[in-house]
Amino acid sequence: MTNPLLQDDLLPAFAQIRSDHVVVALTQQIEENRQHLNSITTRINNQTCDLTWEGIVSPIVEQGDRLSRLWSPVSHMNSVVSNDDFREAHDACLPLLTEFSSEVGQNKELYEAYRALSNSKQLPPLQQKIIDDDLLDFRLAGVELSSDKQARFREIKSRLSELGSKFSNHVLDATMAWSKTLTDIADLKGMPDSAIAAAKEAFSKHADENSDQHNDENNHVVGYRLTLDIPCYLAVMTYADDVKLREEMNHAYSTRASDQQSHPEWDNTPIIQETLQLRHEFAQLLGFENYAAYSLATKMANDPQQVMDFLEQLASVSQEKAKSELQELLDFATNLDGIETLHVWDVAYYSEKLRQQKYDISQEELRPWFPEDKVLSGLFEITSRLYNVSFEEQKEVDLWHVDVRFFKIFDAKNNHTGSFYLDLYARSHKRGGAWMDSCRDRKRNTAGELQLPVAYLTCNFNAPIGDAQALFTHDEVVTLFHEFGHGLHHLMTEIDEIQVSGINGVSWDAVELPSQFMENFCYDKESLNIIARHVDTDEPLSDVVLQRLNDARQFQAAMQMVRQLEFSLFDFRIHLEFDPSIDSQFTKILREVREQVSVMPPPSWNRFENGFSHIFAGGYAAGYYSYKWAEVLSADVWSSFEEKGIFDASVARMFLDQILSQGGSKKAMELFVNFKGREPSVDALLAQQGISSH
Fold this sequence. Notes:
By secondary structure, this protein is an alpha+beta fold. The protein contains 26 helices and nine strands. The strands form three sheets. It has a five-stranded mixed sheet, sandwiched between helices. It has a two-stranded antiparallel ribbon with strand order 1-2. The protein has a two-stranded antiparallel sheet with strand order 7-8. A hairpin with a 5-residue loop joins β4 and β5. The protein is globular.
């Protein structure tokens, strides 16, 4: 039988991919890549290989992309349609991938060939930049280590890959394991109709999936199923009048995969400790003092002190206002309900009521103005006006779920330039959160043929109920625009070398710039008039509501700032200050960080770190600060659009030419300065969020 993962198709055959295809395909592809690598290094040793870009780099990259194209749908399906068999197959491949990655990264013959190519000084600037990046990657892969240290390095990498997957699996399992069924709608008092309808539908689906086909006793039972999926969780925390229900769900969510829950096999605490230990050893093997220093070797920030200064500067200008915002919230809750002590499960609830009182605006009340079809068509129109592109949905495409959609993007001359999958709704067996990932990267192969980029855009919004289309909150629209910004960075690239096309080769602390930039269109009157149209009347938001929405953008901005700084400082410090002689040092550091910046310390049972997948199962280790770093960049960029008009053709063209299309072809700071004419300043961000810098 043909293995769909081994077919060299333009797009993955998702409907044909089964768990038993995975290990077989990956093992075969890795062996093919290994033989290809060995043939090149043999020719290098025999001096029968041209030490040129075409003789060495191009064939290595070509073969590496075949492996990436195979693994991409496997990794993606494990995140969006996971099951036990597929997870087992996925996880069985991780050691194989890690081992082969180390083989390539520690290949001294290849490293010396790249060095010779670099030293030849005959490469054009783009290729020279790629070779410089590759040489750094070789060193960070341990190519210059002794053989015994290389062996230990490979062991650590393999174990870290395994730990990251386990961490993510535990969070998903803990999220899926918790649910609460209510039979009295009065228990959901305060919650919006859309959330109640979603809970009712979740109950019905769960009953259908778990009932005997020959037993219809559940057919007429009405119930409401609450889960820890983000749309449901946020709806309860924001609107449910029942404080005990809010507390129960907050406890369940904040203790996922920890010692506070009833599944000790899912406790991520030992994984955190071992991960930090191994990362520290890993960094020191490479000659870095700690993992934070190692992390910055490929980032825009120069050194750990610069990052700490940056975070502490933001904390110092935000903290007093954050305290006053919290006091305002407490005063409001006291006056409204006689609340004397504000708990963490009260914050979102009373904040929403205070927001409505101050700005007469509610996320739920805005839903009718953000129907899915209008939001998507508006998003496409905004992008078209900025960059002169168009979009076309394709129906005859193999998909992993019935809710997924597929679009092509075309340039001004109607040339197809890229495509993307859109998977918007939350569901069981789908990882929470929102993200963009690569399915295919832009590259021109050795035969001169152009491979176009393809992206996955994934969110977790409430699915439509019945025949009605989905209605989004404004926050969800912001999330969609954010991920679409990442997608445009991937799809609008004009770079043909895969190592630096799209988001490849972009400093991690600059990669959020295009995504955070796109969020601004969700607040500007001119762009909101395009995306916000009432589902029944097609009326736009009134000027009054538009103003309230923008005023509300600064609502509790300082509280949100210090919350993100808490995450960033915790992440950076546990990697910067790791001491193997101190058990559970990360717990002590978290407490210190909260004492330093938090204005609303959580209960002692809170274990947010056990679900902090960004740094323990994603790419943000010692790099979570990147969100704030890139916010500074994006606010500074947006100020240029505000000055000239958000659809000013010259500014949009400059942004496209100097940043969005350039990928990692130049250093992030160089690209920013090319656009802005100077280095970034925090002033635009602080002004945007209403936080004084004085």
